[in-house]
Structures are given as structure tokens and as C-alpha cells.
Amino acid sequence: MRPVALATARLDLLPLAVEHADEMSRVLADPALHAFTGGAPLSRDALRARYERLAAGSPDPAVVWANWVLRLSGPGDLVGTVQATVTPAAGLAELAWVVGVPWQGRGFASEAARALAAWLEGLPVERLIAHVHPEHAASAAVARACGLRPTGHLQDGEVRWQSPSPGPRAGAAAD
Q1: Which residue segments constitute the domains of the chain, with CATH numbers given?
Q2: Which residues contact 60 (CB under 8 A, 6 or more apart)?
């Protein structure tokens, strides 16, 4: 199970490669991206090292890391990422997304996350989950766009959102 290139009306989702680190370090440089998650932007070299680890795959053979960069169709600028941490034996995929500040508010995260959810429908995945800070309305909208619903479960201060059983409901809503 390896990520493949995906496309939406406005985005190309490209499997993450180390070569994306230079441009993505600029996309992810705004400290505002860490308002709800904590931490700080990584330097270009630190992001390159992170992308090397991600591209190498999970050290746990029971877990698959699937990561994409988001490229605008047309101008070709990178604008963000989506990822899924898939545990096939559990039928579970945890989704995450980030879009650089200049491109936020245009529905790119929802569009990419819905494409990812649709791709996961063809895999041994029965449930999608995401963890969203309770005050992060934009990320809650993305989770909702993927058909996820909030649960009462908190993990590290974030609400667990999940798809209803028996499986993911990709494209359930639009933003």
C-alpha cells in the first residue's frame, strides 16, 4: 500500500518526496500554523530530514504512512499536505491536513481530504479518524467534509472525530 498521485478539480496530490522539502519549508513557515498544535515551523534542513523519515515509511510493519503534498493545478505552487496513518489490521486510518496560511479559506484542505478519504475506500479501511482542537473551526469543517463526526473522546486536548460504521463516508459535505 503506497500513496499514488491523486487529482481533484483544483489540486494535484503528489506522493511526498524529499525534494518537496525546500518549497514546503516556505509554505509551512508561518508560526500561525502552530496555534492549535503547538511547536514551531521546521527549518528547511529539519523538514528535509522529516520528509526522509516519512518517505522511508513507518518502522512498524503493521502501520503504513501515506503522505502527499498539495499542488495547485495550473500555477503549480505547493500549498499544503494531507496524510493518512493506516493500520490495515485494525481497519483504521487517521487523517491529518495542513494548508499554508496564504491559501487557507478556499476549501483546499477539504478538497484534498475528501480525495484522500475516497482513495482509502479502496483499501482495507473501515473507519477514518482525525483529531481536531476543539477551538479549530476550520479543521472541524474539514473533518465534517470527510463525513467524520465528533466523539466525546479527547486525546491530548483534541477531539476525536470519526466516520460512522461500517466505513468511511467520503465527500459527505462540501465547504
Answers
A1: 6-162 (3.40.630.30)
A2: none
